From TrEMBL:
Domain RNA polymerase sigma factor 70 region 4 type per the UniProt entry, residue ranges: 127-171
Name of the protein described by the UniProt record: RNA polymerase sigma-70 factor
UniProt superkingdom: Bacteria
GO MF annotations, alphabetized: DNA binding; sigma factor activity
InterPro entries: RNA_pol_sigma-70-like, RNA_pol_sigma-70_dom, RNA_pol_sigma70_bacteroid, RNA_pol_sigma70_r2, RNA_pol_sigma70_r4_t2, RNA_pol_sigma_r2, RNA_pol_sigma_r3/r4-like, WH-like_DNA-bd_sf
Keywords for this protein: Sigma factor, Transcription, Transcription regulation
Similarity field: Belongs to the sigma-70 factor family. ECF subfamily.
GO BP of this protein: DNA-templated transcription initiation
Pfam families (alphabetical): Sigma70_r2, Sigma70_r4_2
Gene3D superfamilies linked: 1.10.1740.10, Winged helix-like DNA-binding domain superfamily/Winged helix DNA-binding domain (1.10.10.10)
Length: 192
């Protein structure tokens, strides 16, 4: 079943004004839809800052593409379509980054050919574990559970948070660990 949205004259006028560059119309649309857009983004990300960024990006894209708007289509359709695409792209990009970081971690603990290679990997692994210990408690817990091969949904159930929160916290943990490992490596090089 296809839903038809009724547009009143006020909606049509808002779109016309927006197309003509009216900042007042844009502010009115923002006031009308920003909180609903934020709630939707937060539902997917489980993170306040990512949700705020997604909403901001959606409104920026709406403003930048205002001249292509169809006056017979409700503005909320455009806005939430932009928001949905931004959410999907962000989640997909984070998934790729997490997959790359997982590969990096698995390489550190994989079997190798020689003692020298194993010794170098063990040293690097110790740096990673020091970086893990420096994480905030919740991130450390999530990271260690991921290392123990628990799935995102299993961890989410254990900690009573959303799966997207687990994904995001794990991603942030990986970024922090990479940064800390680089710092530890520099300290080791200059202070053997």
């Amino acid at each position: 079943m296809k839903y038809q949205f009724c547009m009143n004259q006020e909606d049509v006028e808002s779109i016309k004004e927006l197309k003509n560059g009216s900042q007042l119309a844009f502010a009115s649309i923002y006031k009308l839809y920003a909180s609903r857009a934020y709630l939707l983004a937060f539902k997917y990300f489980g993170d306040k800052y990512m949700a705020e960024d997604a909403v901001q990006n959606a409104f920026i894209k709406l403003w930048n593409n205002r001249q292509t708007l169809d006056e017979s289509c409700p503005i909320q359709n455009y806005l939430f379509c932009i928001l949905k695409n931004d959410i999907i792209n962000t989640l997909r990009d984070n998934k790729k980054k997490i997959a790359g970081a997982n590969f990096w971690l698995k390489e550190l603990v994989s079997e190798d050919d020689g003692d020298e290679q194993r010794f170098a990997r063990e040293k690097q692994w110790k740096k990673v574990m020091r970086a893990v210990e420096a994480l905030p408690p919740q991130q450390k817990k999530i990271f260690k559970l991921k290392l123990s091969n628990y799935s995102n949904s299993e961890i989410a159930n254990m900690l009573n948070v959303s799966v997207n929160t687990i994904k995001y916290m794990y991603y942030i943990s990986l970024k922090q660990i990479r940064t800390l490992v680089k710092v530890l490596l520099v300290v080791f090089i200059f202070n053997p």
